[in-house]
Amino acid sequence: MIRGWQSLAGTFTGVVFITVAVLPLAALAVWVLAHRRKAAGATSARAWRTSLADVGILYGTAPGIWMIMLPGPGAGIVPGRVSLVPLRDLATMPTGQVVGNLLVFAALGFLVPLRFPALASVTRILLLGAGCSALVETAQYVLWLDRVSSVDDVLLNASGAGLAALASRWYWRSSSGADEPGSHAATATGRSYAG
């Protein structure tokens, strides 16, 4: 039985299946967190928004990282390989891989500015996405996963986070903490970053 789960968790299809299967648990986690935050004095809107962002960041990012960290057939035998020339691998990458790389940190890029107003800038999210991606690529190399650690993957992952941040930009102001009781902080742009 354990071997069956292990083989399921080690495939793209298995990761997708498990991600869909745990969706009810993610929804339950949002509900529990929101109710605990409301009980602690947060407004209902703030409690639900922050809970959804917290769980969404994890739920939306973990499957992509899981897929990136799946070992190849020569894992543990073949040493790590690197590709440090920007845009060299991009020309030969299949479309599905390009789209997948753009989506890996998209949830992070979309939800982090809503959850952490101090990071609500496209530049900061690009840097966060690049940093997270560089850590994952370094782990691939160090762990000998029979995968190529490529600067193009970092560029695509960071770009995906930045594009997702742009898509959520309209919501940044409404999530800045203005609905919190006693919120006094305001920036020159009119946003409140208390919370």
UniProtKB/TrEMBL annotation:
One Pfam family it belongs to: VanZ
Region listing for Disordered, in residue ranges: 176-195
Transmembrane portions of the chain: 12-34, 55-78, 98-118
Residue ranges of domain VanZ-like in the record: 82-168
Highest taxon above the source species: Bacteria
Swiss-Prot/TrEMBL keywords: Membrane, Transmembrane, Transmembrane helix
Listed name of the protein: VanZ family protein
Source organism of this protein record: Actinomadura syzygii
